[in-house]
Amino acid sequence: MINTNSLFRYYVVLALLLMVGSASVSASRLIMPRQQAEHFCQLMLDDGTGASPLYYHARRMMQAEDSLSVEQLFASFILQDDNWQGMRFFPHQEGRGVVWYSAADKLPATINAEHRKYILEVFPRLIAQVEAGDWKTVDAYIEKMVQYQCQFGGSQVKSPVSSAQLTVIAAIFLAILLVSRFLLLPLHPKRRQL
C-alpha cells in the first residue's frame, strides 16, 4: 500500500513532468513579470521529503524558454488549472513538529477557522490579481504568504534573504578583505625585507 508521502511525491513528480511538457508547447495566460515570479518562488513547498523553496524545484526541473525565466514558467504552472491545490504550501504546528497541508487536504480540527479560510482563499485571490495585472497587490499577497510560512513553519522555514541584503553582505565582505589586505601587507615578512 502506498503511504501519503509517497503518493504526494508521485503527484509532485507527475505534475512537474506535465508542467515541463506543457510549458514548452504553449505560452501561458498567467505569466508574472520576472520580479513577481522570483518573489513567488521564495515560497516554501513540502514535497514529502521536507520543505524547500519553489525556486529549488523550478531550477531543478525546468529550463528558461525564450524571454521567460524558470521562475516565471514554474509560477505560471502552479497558478494555472488549480495546480496549487495539491501542493503543500501551508505549515501548521502540531505538537513539537510542523505538518504541511495543501488546500485539497483534509485539515485537522486544530487549524482554526481563520487559517482554514486563508488556506482555501489565498490562491484564488492571488490568481485574480495576476489576471488583473495588479502587480503591487500580487507582491503584497506573496509577501503575506512568505510571512505566514515563516510564522507557522517553525524552524523549517527562515525568512528568505533578499538580493539587496546579499549585495550589502558581499560589499561588507569585500571592504573587510581590501582593508585587511592593505593593513596586513606591510607586516608581511618579505615586504619588511625590502
> How would you sum up the global shape?
globular
Secondary-structure element pattern, one letter each = HHEEHHEEHHHH
> Helix fraction?
55-70%
- Low-pLDDT segments, ≥5 res: 20-28
Gyration radius, to the nearest Å? 22 Å
* Continuous helix count: 8
Q: Major sheet, described briefly?
A: 2 strands, antiparallel
**Computed structural class:** mainly alpha
Distance between the termini: 77 Å
Mean pLDDT: 74
Overall number of strands = 4
Strand order of the largest sheet: 1-2
In terms of DSSP E residues, the strand content is 5-15%
Quick recap:
The protein has 8 helices and 4 strands. It has 194 residues and is mainly α. The strands form 2 sheets. It has a two-stranded antiparallel ribbon with strand order 1-2. Strands 3-4 form a two-stranded antiparallel sheet.
Question: What can you tell me about this protein's structure?
Answer:
This protein is mostly helical and 194 residues long. Helices cover 58% and strands 8% of the residues. It has eight helices and four strands. It has helices at residues 4-25, 34-40, 54-61, 70-79, 113-132, 135-152, 163-184, 189-193, and strands at residues 44-46, 51-53, 90-94, 97-101. The strands form two sheets. The protein has a two-stranded antiparallel ribbon with strand order 1-2. Helix 2 (34-40) crosses helix 4 (70-79) and helix 5 runs antiparallel to helix 6. The protein is globular. The model is unreliable at 20-28 (pLDDT under 50).
